[in-house]
UniProtKB/TrEMBL annotation:
Protein's name in the database: Sulfonate transport system ATP-binding protein
Molecular function terms from GO: ATP binding; ATP hydrolysis activity
ABC transporter domain residues: 14-228
Keywords for this protein: ATP-binding, Cell membrane, Membrane, Nucleotide-binding, Translocase, Transport
Pfam families, alphabetized: ABC_tran
Length: 241
């Protein structure tokens, strides 16, 4: 069994300080500070073009032109809006990609079972629905036993019903595995359904931090949910209907 250092650490799974990123003269990140505690889900909300994906890419180590400091002491895995499966590899081989150590086959099978695809391991990506392909992408992240999941609009390309199912799946997996998550979204409801805290990215900085205290099973019908939704929509400049 692989050792799991970070989940036993008393401390954050992500710390970022003064993160900056510009594209030519355009400053997208102007000094972002954020912290994600072990087991915590933080939603990163912001308008289109506010720099959410840029920040996630920087934190995931996919952009080496950024400034500032950030540390991820444990294992991290990324799920993007597109599943990014290799079309020439079967589902199970996509999940196994880059894995080493004992019993890779067993670990892959367990991860696929956890996302509800126990019998689809031999399928090619082209044979999977959009929701199934995204489940494989979640299994590929899960099998790495992450302390932190970095999620960039992971359900943004799915239909509304599939999206709800995937949100439920993420909550279940989180409860079972205890990973922390940084969830990039522009969907206010998704942020409130999943997150312990919402960070609002605006003007290249975290302009506001909103704790979400809606209990273990938040419902859009709850007046407290409605009040937070309105506050966030106001903040994003969406007028009341
Ligand atoms: N490779 C790049 N080259 C030039 N500009 C870029 C590049 N990547 C991002 N940008 C710019 O940085 C800004 C932030 O983009 P980013 O994709 O991070 O925003 P976002 O908040 O994720 O938006 P959305 O919600 O629409 O996905 C945008 O103005 C975008 O045009």
């Amino acid at each position: 069994m692989a050792t799991r250092p970070a989940r036993d650490l008393i401390g954050p799974v992500l710390t970022a300080r003064a993160v900056t990123r510009s594209f030519g003269p355009t400053v997208v990140l102007a000094g972002v500070d954020l912290t994600v505690a072990a087991g915590e889900t933080v939603a990163l909300l912001g308008g289109s073009g506010s720099g959410k994906s840029t920040l996630l890419r920087v934190l995931a180590g996919l952009d080496d032109a950024a400034g500032g400091h950030w540390t991820l002491p444990g294992a991290a895995a990324v799920v993007f809006q597109e599943h990014r499966l290799l079309p020439w590899k079967r589902a199970a081989d996509n999940v196994a990609l880059g894995l080493a150590g004992p019993d890779v086959g067993g670990r892959v099978a367990r991860a696929l079972a956890e996302v509800g695809l126990a019998d689809r391991g031999r399928a090619w990506p082209a044979e999977l629905s959009g929701g199934q392909a995204q489940r494989v992408a979640v299994a590929r992240a899960l099998v790495r036993e992450p302390d932190l999941l970095l999620l960039d609009e992971p359900f943004g390309a799915l239909d509304a019903l599939t999206r709800l199912r995937m949100q439920g799946l993420l909550r279940r997996l989180r409860a079972q595995h205890g990973f922390a998550a940084l969830l990039v979204t522009h969907d206010v409801e998704e942020a409130l359904l999943l997150a312990d805290r919402v960070l609002l990215l605006d003007g290249g900085v975290i302009a506001e931090e909103i704790p979400v205290r809606l209990g273990p099973a938040p419902s859009p019908d709850d007046p407290a949910f409605g009040a937070l939704r309105r506050r966030l929509l106001d903040r994003l400049g969406v007028p009341a209907a």
